[in-house]
Design goal:
The protein is built from 12 helices and 15 strands. The chain has helices at residues 16-31, 50-64, 71-78, 89-104, 121-130, 149-160, 178-188, 219-244, 253-266, 402-411, 421-436, 453-458; strands spanning 6-11, 38-44, 81-85, 110-114, 137-141, 168-170, 202-210, 275-280, 298-303, 315-320, 329-334, 355-359, 365-373, 381-389, 442-444. The chain has a 9-stranded mixed β-sheet. A 6-stranded parallel β-sheet has the order 3-2-1-4-5-6, sandwiched between helices. A hairpin with a 5-residue loop joins strand 12 and strand 13 (365-373). The model has no long low-confidence stretch (mean pLDDT 94). The protein binds 6-O-phosphono-beta-D-glucopyranose. The site of 6-O-phosphono-beta-D-glucopyranose has 5 residues, from loops. Pfam families: G6PD_C (PF02781), G6PD_N (PF00479).
């Protein structure tokens, strides 16, 4: 499984994502047997030396790496880290890449990781073109992929002027989570669930990703983006497609993208009456936030997929900042038994419908909750659960962090877990009514589950969280 040598150019190297995820992920790949022969060239607006960048990376790793490095490991990784400021221009970057290639023994493939906002993307692409770093290269692009249909098309066109679609990897790190991939394994690796995976047996679906986290250092990004663009149009819709898609003809990128894109095309345009936008009290007092900001820090919505399998089955999505708990669950609620033969008070149905739940947390769990008999006399029923957790297997140490997995896949030229220009454009199109006329934000107290209106939105069902 070992990857061939690569030069990785990391644009936005001193940003938040780089600190939290990319540098720790690259360290793990470089120090494991997975990708030992990489050189990383960091680049950003800041004027740093190699040593200063290594210091930045050291700090990032000690704060965010799940696997603490020994001194020897750190020295080994630090030796692979170099830095070129944006001010060095295309020439400076080309020279740094050439030096890295020499250290790796000649002409090697490159991966350009664009951890930059969309406005900066055209400049990065120009630099790569001027530096002649386009051939033998792949680019990883970070969301947001535009802010509406027109800007997404514009961005895609700009990138396509330099890179072919097969060189572009639009990353959605939720698809790199072990549990998201387990949705595919679970659905298509078993005969048990697929026959009931439709409107005849499924009552509704919840994709619920509350976060305790606030803005952290990202106020200006967040203020301009909001929860819908930051989370729903990217991560939650992508996960929804894994849940809702038809079986692909093969587990290969083109077949999967085709099926996902069909889901996006079948999504009903968002009806703003089915949307609750929220803002936590105190958001407007945060640094970098407008005093009259209308940015949503919370959103819940009901969407429908108008196809044969899902007609009439509501999908409820919710996510927000500064909420009561941090959770990432997908919950499939099954229909009730057609007739209850249990006496009143037996407990059946009292704790909601039976559910299948995928937990997208790092431990990755799948659980099935159902009614079963309470031990003892009489016939009382309790909600019971069967559960699988990767933590409980002897393979727990093999779990790759989402970014590690996806960076590896991009180096391997495997598009399976990446999104396509076409899919993204359909999602923006479906979102147009909400973007054009967003309902006003409702306030919610930090540490809560969102504004009260979330209960009306899901009625007659109930949110599965809190457990
Ligand atoms: C990012 C969003 O893409 O995903 C963040 O920009 C969010 O706002 C994060 O906190 C959540 O990712 P994870 O992997 O921590 O669930």
């Amino acid at each position: 499984d070992q990857l061939p040598p690569h030069v990785i150019v990391l644009f936005g190297a001193t940003g938040d994502l780089s600190r939290r995820k990319l540098l720790p992920g690259l360290a793990h790949l470089a120090l494991s047997a997975l990708a030992p022969d990489i050189e990383v060239i960091g680049t950003s607006l800041e004027d740093l030396s190699d040593e200063a960048f290594q210091g930045f990376a050291n700090q990032a790793l000690s704060e965010f790496s799940h696997r603490p490095l020994t001194k020897e490991q750190w020295e080994q990784f630090a030796g692979k880290l170099h830095y070129v400021p944006t001010s060095a221009g295309a020439e400076g970057l080309a020279a740094a890449v050439a030096r890295s290639e020499e250290r790796l023994g000649g002409n090697v493939p490159m991966l350009h990781y664009m951890s930059v906002p969309p406005v900066a993307a055209p400049a990065v692409i120009n630099t790569l073109r001027e530096a002649k770093l386009v051939e033998n290269s792949r680019v990883v692009m970070e969301k947001p992929f535009g802010t509406d249909l027109a800007s997404a098309i514009r961005l895609n066109d700009q990138v396509h002027e330099t890179f072919r679609e097969d060189q572009i990897f639009r990353i959605d790190h939720f698809l790199g989570k072990e549990a998201a991939q387990n949705i595919l394994a679970f659905r298509f690796g078993n005969g048990l669930f697929e026959p009931i995976w439709n409107r005849q047996f499924i009552d509704h679906i919840q994709i619920d990703i509350p976060e305790k986290l606030g803005l952290d250092r990202r106020a200006s990004f967040y203020e301009a983006t909001g929860a819908f663009k930051d989370m729903i149009v990217t991560h939650l819709f992508q996960v929804l497609a894994f849940v809702a898609m038809e079986p692909p003809t093969a587990l290969e990128p083109r077949a999967i993208s085709e099926e996902k894109n069909k889901v996006f095309r079948s999504m009903l345009p968002i009806d703003t009456r089915n949307v609750v936008r929220g803002q936590y009290t105190g958001y407007r007092d945060e640094d970098g936030v407008a005093r009259d900001s209308d940015t949503e820090t919370f959103i819940a919505l009901k969407v429908g997929i108008d196809n044969w399998r899902w007609a009439g089955v509501p999908f409820y999505l919710r996510t927000g900042k500064r909420m009561a708990e941090g959770q990432r669950i997908i919950s499939i609620a099954f229909k009730e038994a057609p007739k209850s033969m249990f006496p009143p008070g037996s407990g059946v149905g009292q704790q909601g419908p039976d559910h299948l739940t995928f937990d997208l947390a790092d431990e990755s769990k799948v659980s099935l909750s159902f009614y079963g008999k309470r031990p003892g006399p009489g016939m009382k029923l309790d909600k019971l659960s069967m559960q699988f957790s990767t933590q409980e297997t002897d393979r727990a140490a093999d779990v790759l962090e989402a970014y590690e997995r996806l960076i590896m896949d991009a180096m391997r030229d495997d598009h399976t877990l990446f999104t396509t220009a076409e899919g993204i454009e359909s999602l923006w199109e479906r979102s147009a009514p909400l973007l054009a006329d967003p309902p006003p934000v409702k306030m919610y107290p930090p540490g809560s589950w969102g504004p009260n209106a979330i209960h009306q939105l899901i009625a007659p069902h109930a949110w599965r969280l809190p457990f």
